[in-house]
Every structure is written in C-alpha cells, then in structure tokens.
Design brief:
The mean pLDDT is about 80. The chain has about 45 residues and is mainly α.
C-alpha cells in the first residue's frame, strides 16, 4: 500500500524535475543567444 501511495508523488516529482531542467535549458539558450546577438546589435548602432 505504501509503495502504491508513493508512486504518483515520485512520478510528479520526476515530471517536475524534467520540466525544471527543460525550463533551465530554454532559459540558458535564450541567455546565450542574447549574449551572442548583443555585440551584433551594438555594432549596428
């Protein structure tokens, strides 16, 4: 019974960690893209 009760929570934790990692990855890509694009924009002005 305890195993069955803990299962959904572990699944939710796993899904939340995967979502968190993907959000961090998306944020890092946007941050790196802005860093690489910033010199191009500053050169234009």
């Amino acid at each position: 019974m305890l195993r069955y009760d803990q299962r959904p929570y572990s699944f939710l934790n796993e899904a939340a960690s995967i979502l968190h990692i993907s959000l961090l990855a998306i944020y890092n890509t946007i941050y790196l893209a802005s860093l690489t694009l910033h010199p191009i924009y500053s050169q234009q002005y």
